[in-house]
Amino acid sequence: MKRRNRATAQLAVTALFVGGSLTIGAGQASAAPSFTFEQTARDSNGSFNVAVYTNHVYAGKAEWNADPVSGAPGDSLRAYDHYADGWSVEAILYKPYRVASTAGHASPHWTGWKSGNIKEGTTVKVRICMTRGYNSSCSDYYAGKA
Questions:
Q1: Residue 1 pLDDT
Q2: Which pick of 23, 33, 99, 137 has the fewest CB atoms within 10 Å?
Q3: Is 47 in contact with 144 (CB distance < 8 Å)?
Q4: Can you give the pTM of this predicted structure?
Q5: How far is CA 47 from CA 15, 20, 22, 65, 83, in A?
Q6: DSSP assignment of the chain
Q7: Number of Cα atoms under 13 Å in the Cβ half of residue 28
Q8: For residue 12, is pLDDT > 90?
Q9: Could you read off the pLDDT of 94-131 as tens digits, one per residue?
């Protein structure tokens, strides 16, 4: 009889220990931010901007510059991170592939222009992504011209 009570007690203690360990390691999950994207400017030459908002607060933008203007090169892309929330802003050009990322920089931060010649009149597609580690949230692609 003593053996049976001892085995039951050990089993109960083990179950409590395992359950307690799982509970301690679980932690409380925080809600992921809500990102919204909006095209905020478009020029007749094909240039445009896409803004990103984190929980309705302006967080940054991606810029596509079709033609050289005010010291900015044509056929170029850059990103801006305005909001110090732990997320980086990435501007991504699809075909030819280019990325401008604010990762590793404190906010506010502008990236340099990522540029290279693209045939005049070519349709380009750009998206903006918010990234943190392996997590990302991206807009649809917005079209412009080179």
A1: 54
A2: 23
A3: yes
A4: 0.78
A5: 63, 57, 52, 5, 24
A6: -HHHHHHHHHHHHHHHHHHHHHHHHH-PPPPPPPEEEEEEEE-TTS-EEEEEEETTEEEEEEEEE-S-BTTBPSSEEEEEE---SS-EEEEEEETTTEEEE-TTSPSSEEPPPEE----TT-EEEEEEEEEETTEEEEPPPEEEE-
A7: 2
A8: no
A9: 999 999 999 999 999 999 999 999 999 999 999 999 99
Q: Across the strands, what pairs with 127?
A: 92
36-75 pLDDT, tens per residue? 999 999 999 999 999 999 999 999 999 999 999 988 999 9
- Sequence-distant (6+) residues with CB within 8 A of 78 are 62, 63, 65, 91, 100, 110, 111, 112, 113, 114
Burial class (CB in 10 A: 0-12, 13-18, 19+), 79: buried
